[in-house]
Amino acid sequence: MHIIEIQLDKTHPKCPPSISADVPYMFDLKWSTHSRLKDVVQKFKKHLEKLQAFWSTLDDIDRSLWVVDPKQASPSVSYRQINMGNDCFIMLSINAFDPRSLPECRFIGSGPIVNLLRNRWRRNGKRWIKDKQFLENLKCLLETQLPIPPDVQKNEQQVECGICYAQSLPIDEELRHKSGTGTDYTCDNTSCKRAFHSICLVDWLRSITTTRQYVKFLVSQLTSAGLCMNVALVVFCNIL
């Protein structure tokens, strides 16, 4: 529910009333001696309709990303501070007049991760497309997996890679679209069902110089390390 506060001057209705509300910006009030207060209310309702896209964008961010500030945002607040992990934060300021446009972005923190994301933002700024979803645009510019809220993380099963034992790959320029992503290959053998980063599997297999000459040796190496025969054969075929 939105509330508008209307204060009347002693000279009312000659002078326009003073209006305020918890919104990012107020509408222009055109007033004459023939204007009525119900006209102000109607204008306010239309103004709220215009702001729905702005609030919808912020709701998507609050629901889908790890927002650390503000904890309880009022309808007038247009920024969100997001925890990107590795002591890196981004401050997004959404344009209330044009919420689908490229937001202002401030990077907070120090170290290579912050510099990496800042450089990606500058390099990919022209790739922002208004017709795309806000979060999809954000992911495209930063070239990394966007962090979900902690409460969502607890409810989702986190799967570690059977090779590197990490849930997600590091944020690294060399990994390109794989940067920050989770496991993307799961063995379909019911007795295994282990998850892996496909890039970890490929790198490991390529590190074994005898794989192309001795398939049996490769399989024995993989199975002795805890991988099932199915994973060994499927991945081996994929890199040949």
Automatic annotation (TrEMBL):
<feature type="domain" description="FANCL UBC-like">
    <location>
        <begin position="2"/>
        <end position="51"/>
    </location>
</feature>
<dbReference type="GO" id="GO:0061630">
    <property type="term" value="F:ubiquitin protein ligase activity"/>
</dbReference>
<dbReference type="InterPro" id="IPR016135">
    <property type="entry name" value="UBQ-conjugating_enzyme/RWD"/>
</dbReference>
<feature type="domain" description="FANCL UBC-like">
    <location>
        <begin position="54"/>
        <end position="149"/>
    </location>
</feature>
<dbReference type="Pfam" id="PF18890">
    <property type="entry name" value="FANCL_d2"/>
</dbReference>
<dbReference type="GO" id="GO:0006513">
    <property type="term" value="P:protein monoubiquitination"/>
</dbReference>
<dbReference type="Pfam" id="PF18891">
    <property type="entry name" value="FANCL_d3"/>
</dbReference>
<dbReference type="InterPro" id="IPR013083">
    <property type="entry name" value="Znf_RING/FYVE/PHD"/>
</dbReference>
<dbReference type="InterPro" id="IPR026848">
    <property type="entry name" value="Fancl"/>
</dbReference>
<dbReference type="Pfam" id="PF11793">
    <property type="entry name" value="FANCL_C"/>
</dbReference>
<dbReference type="InterPro" id="IPR043003">
    <property type="entry name" value="FANCL_d3_sf"/>
</dbReference>
<dbReference type="GO" id="GO:0043240">
    <property type="term" value="C:Fanconi anaemia nuclear complex"/>
</dbReference>
<dbReference type="InterPro" id="IPR043898">
    <property type="entry name" value="FANCL_d2"/>
</dbReference>
<feature type="domain" description="FANCL C-terminal">
    <location>
        <begin position="157"/>
        <end position="217"/>
    </location>
</feature>
<dbReference type="GO" id="GO:0036297">
    <property type="term" value="P:interstrand cross-link repair"/>
</dbReference>
<dbReference type="InterPro" id="IPR044037">
    <property type="entry name" value="FANCL_d3"/>
</dbReference>
<protein>
    <submittedName>
        <fullName>E3 ubiquitin-protein ligase FANCL-like isoform X1</fullName>
    </submittedName>
</protein>
<dbReference type="InterPro" id="IPR026850">
    <property type="entry name" value="FANCL_C"/>
</dbReference>
